[in-house]
Amino acid sequence: MVTPTVPFSDLSKNSKRVAETLDRVHRLHVKRRDGEDLFITTARHDRDRAETADFAARMLIALVGSDDGNRAVLHALPLVFPWVRHLSQAEMWEFVHDLVDATRDAVDLDVHATLHRVIVEWRATARILADPALTAQLTRALPDEDHGAVIAP
After folding, report:
1. CA 92 to chain centre
2. What percent of the chain has pLDDT over 70?
3. How far apart are the first and last CA of the chain?
4. Total structural domains within the chain
5. pTM (two decimals)
6. 64 and 30, same structural domain?
7. What is the dihedral of CA 54, 60, 61, 63, to 10 degrees?
8. What domain of life is recorded for the organism (predicted)?
9. In angstroms, rounded to a whole number, what is the distance separating the alpha carbons of residues 77 and 40?
10. Domain range spanning residue 107?
């Protein structure tokens, strides 16, 4: 289902219409001119989404707890993330490990940004590995020059 969009200015002008729309669709995209767009949702819909995400995360965590589960996850990985075909077997395992750790953070700590970052970073790695010229450029030996200590950000 497509999430309906309303301008931010409609929230105060037509709050009854907004509430009626939320009763029907459970989620509303609010378009803002001066900031990041918003989503308004019903509490029940938000609880349902959280419960569904929690279930999916716990299922992944449980699967990687056994050899059969690990094989199932590795088998499913290219179907979920087609770009993993550019990763080596060791890199795929590392991705799964990072994915599980970030999923645990999402479930246990309600920190979802880490999971998104892990996927974005591994996809970027696959993009580099898919381009042999770029891979060669980025993996070539560096000169033996010492530029000093790297200062922590």
Report:
1. 17
2. 92
3. 43
4. 2
5. 0.70
6. no
7. 140
8. Bacteria
9. 32
10. 48-139
